[in-house]
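note to self — DONT lose this again. spent like an hour looking for the file last time. sequence + predicted structure for the chain T wanted, 163 res
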Amino acid sequence: MIDLQSAGDGLAGYGLLAAQVESLFADEHDFIANAAQFSAFLYNQVDDLNWAGFYLNRNEELVLGPFQGQVACVRIPFSKGVCGAAARTRQTQRVEDVHAFPGHIACDSASNSEVVIPLVKDGRLIGVLDLDSPTLARFSAEDQQGLEKLAEIFLRLTDCSGY
């Protein structure tokens, strides 16, 4: 595991993770396989997470996809929670205290902060990548930027045509 928070430059740590993700997806392009691998990779390589995974866009509703962590909410409307806000606005949501977020959905009461990255390919919302932490204010601007880069690699190297 790379301790991204104690590294002098958090983005340097994400650079190493990006190289690993490029290698992980070099020979595989299946969406489910890559989403499962990516969830496991993030859960095990990014410190202080208690959930990492995907919610997929199904007719303007998010449906649980591959993930690592505790049992999760299965369906999230675009009108609710941090994931819904990311899907609705197509903008990354970085929330220091999810309990103060209007409309927050408490799938796991141990989660205190969250970053949700919308996954858009060819102008189409595929879903969102969701990472939760038990620590308040866990995700910095550098984390957001690094995770967005990892998500871009996932989208570039994965066949999303059926999603």
